[in-house]
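ingest -> validate -> predict -> emit
validate: passed (alphabet ok, no gaps, 78 aa)
predict: started
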Amino acid sequence: MLHEYRDIITHMKENSAANAHFLRIFDKHNELDNKITKAENGELVLTDKEVETLKKEKLLLKDEAYAILIKYKKEHSL
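emit:
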């Protein structure tokens, strides 16, 4: 997720106490990504509707994480 911001994400993880909300979003996004991948590969049985719902949730998390990253970048001059 947001690979172009890998350095900022690493910086935020190192200062995790101040970024707990971001880290929860980041972890949940990765969890959903893994679940979707397993469903698409046939390793996990989900309906098309369930997969669609997971993808929407994942996208919302990505949007929220992106907003936090941009704010953090501005605040820390990164």
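Residues 33 and 74 are 28 Å apart (CA to CA).
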